[in-house]
Amino acid sequence: MGMRKIIPSNSVGFRKAFSSSSSAVPGKLSHSNSKSFVPNLHSLHQFLTQQRKSGAITLDEALHFFEYMIRMLPPPPVSSFNHLLGALAKMQHHDHVISFFQRLNSVGVFPDIRTLNILLNCCCKMGLASDGFLVLGKILRGGYSPTSTTFNTLIKGLCMDDKIGEATRLFKNMSVFGCQPDVVTYGSIIDGLCKHEMVEKAKQLFSQMKSRGISPDVVVYTSLLQGCCFMGNLEEAKSLFIEMVDEGVQPNVVTFTVLIDGLCKQQRLQEANELLDLMFQRGRHPDTVTYNTLIDGLCKQGRMEEANRVIGLMIQRGKHPNTRTYNTLIDALCKCGRMEEANRIIGLMIQRGKHPDVVTYNTLIDALCKDGRLDKANKLLHLMIQRNEHPNMVTYNILINALCKQGRLEDADGLLDFIIQRGQHPNVVTYSTLIDALCKEGMMEEANRLLNFMTERGQHLDTVTYGTLVNAFCKEGRMEEANALFELMIQRGQLPNTVIYNTMIDGLCKNGQLEKASDLLKEMEESGCFPDVVTFNTFISFFCQKNETSKVVEFVLKMKQKNMSPDTTTLYIVLKLLSNLKDERRQELINELPTFPAREPPCG
Fold it and tell me: 604 Cβ partners below 8 Å, 6+ apart?
């Protein structure tokens, strides 16, 4: 059966690899001529090794080679396939690696530990770390011992998939398989823990690795530095940086950038600038991310002149501002109301070959909306679409929020239809904004319809939106609907917060349903949601209106038992009650009420 030419005629590298025999460029592959390729297996293996290391092989060439190799009789050894799969993995063609792997068994080529490690790496890079356990099972069933590479790959993949619990368990069980964690393993797990704000656990592992004689490298130090900075422990991060240098581990550009970012977030810009100077002194050249970090910190402080100076330094040092650099400047100028300057920066950005992206447009649309220029914002939306820069839900939510604030609910509803017609999916923020606006306008039927429409489309309310609807129903005295929504919220796994409980209790009290309100208070405490001064004020106000002074005293005493101080509302309610009592009863009630410790007066 005829086949198209396996090796392209313009591929010099391919011709060189098989120059020892013209038969190496196949025309037809059949059982009769496949033996002629056996002498070239060595050349094939050498060529694939070279291509894997250099990364010079293209996807098309790799595909052709794979088809060629699986038709050879006998087929090349698995090591040759490993080089080809490794080259594909290096080029990020992970899906092709998985597809090729599935075909290997069918031609009698069985994977070894290296093949399976390549497959595992591809699964993890594709966000399929859970499938990595299936590969681990293949390794064990095949009689192979997992290597440190196996565990490092899987642990890193699990961390990338936000499965830090599984990664930690696997880390602890490595020794069961006769494998000990190395610096790469510790680096992956420490980085994962820090990114999940579990910095204390990361620090424990950092101490553990040092006690086991494993020296942390720049990756480990940088991960832990980032964790400390993220948690606001900047002094600890600086101490770690000093320790790192003292241990002879040279900080890289990422290390410096992480620390500069931490300093900027705490508004310690002078120190951030000094650290930038230290980078130059140590021969570390800041990259665009470093400069952008410092520029962002300066812009957030309104120090635009200094930000421009850093941009000048950046260009002078051979680093070109990217779209993010310009977006940072544009955002800062818009927030200062300097729209003309922001537009000038956009012009400069385009001149320098950088095109505005969705973030640029969102920044401008947001600024126009906040300035009340909604029609101009809408024109910018349509200009954005004309230029094939697709609006995202942030874009639409900015506009819907602005329209709702101006009471233009029909326009907001029209924009919702426009979003759906374009095949985009409104999110919980979109629906929450519209529902909130409808409730504020007393349009409860419309809000209910939108809630049902939202649910039909697979979107579920968040706590804030539930609270908005419950509050609106309670204000209208529609307690059955409020309670139904409250119960639905719990059924769907959304736990009511103190504000929502307070809203329900207030609504029930105002509707004379004291028993239900009391039951809800009990339920609130049992669920671990603690009542606050607003909760007690609701009950105290209700009993004051009913002149049930004993109940007023009971709830004020409960406040004291819970170490809760009355606020001005509490005092106003009680004073109002006292003013309506006769002198003798008033004095009795004053004697019954508890005293609270005096609060410190506010400073300044």
Answer: none
**Token pair for residue 510?**
């105002």
Quick one: how far is CA 335 from the chain centroid? 25
Q: What is the mean pLDDT of the chain?
A: 84
pLDDT at 18 over 60: no
User: Which pairs from 428-433 meet CB under 8 Å and 24+ separation?
Assistant: 428/459, 428/460, 428/461, 428/462, 428/465, 429/393, 429/397, 430/393, 430/396, 430/397, 430/400, 431/459, 431/461, 431/465, 432/461, 432/462, 432/464, 432/465, 432/468, 433/397, 433/400, 433/401, 433/404
Q: For tokens 């120190």, what's the residue?
A: 271
User: In this predicted structure, what is the pLDDT of residue 187?
Assistant: 94
pTM of the predicted model over 0.70: no
pLDDT value, residue 444: 84
Provide the pLDDT for residue 2: 37
| Chain CA centroid to CA 261, Å | 18
Residue with tokens 């705490």: 266
Report the percent of the chain where pLDDT is more than 70: 89
66 to each of 6, 24, 75, 83, how far by Cα in Å? 10, 14, 11, 11
Which spans in 406-478 are helix H? 409-421, 428-440, 444-456, 463-475
Position with higher pLDDT, 125 vs 49:
125
Q: 83, 51 in Cβ contact below 8 A?
A: yes
| pLDDT value at residue 600 | 52
Asked if 467 and 500 touch (Cβ cutoff 8 Å), the reply is yes
Peptide bond into 74 cis (omega under 30): yes
pLDDT per position as a tens digit, 237-271: 999 999 999 999 999 999 999 999 999 999 999 99
Note the pLDDT of residue 26: 36
Within 13 Å and on the Cβ side, how many CA atoms surround 47? 22
How many Å is the maximal CA-CA distance in the chain?
A: 119
What's 552's DSSP letter? H
Separation between Cα atoms, residue 434 and residue 453, nearest integer Å: 12
Q: Check: CB of residue 6 under 8 Å from CB of residue 64.
A: yes
